[in-house]
Hints:
The protein is mostly helical. The protein contains five helices and no strands. The longest helix has 29 residues, at 112-140.
Amino acid sequence: MRREEAWDALEQAQALEKKVRPMGHWYAVYGIGYGVVSLTLLLSMGLSDSVMGVIVGTSFFALALSLLSLYMVKQPVKPLHYGKLHTWGIAGWGVIYSLAIVVGMIFFQGEPLWWVPMALLSAIPTSGAGLIVLRRAGRAR
């Protein structure tokens, strides 16, 4: 490969990267959406004084998660380091969510001082992953 060909190939690769990288912005919508859904679920489950709050919250969560998953599957491009980012976001969410549910249902039923901070905290891992994607894409321009 001659020098000119190498420069042309590099320019083509950079042009392709500029075109493809923004296509990964969808993950920010997914991550932040997942965080909002988690926040809503924990608040509805924790602050309601009836089984109906759990049923409504869980039903909303199942529907919203199905729609978010469908949205995710339809995307043509995955963001840079998608696997690690998604794994850490969902794993972090799972730990916080489990802690909130187990401890909250045993010791803090209906207590806003437990459920509001835990609901907000549960939104951080996936929302943070979405914001990382946006930050990386902004840096690439």
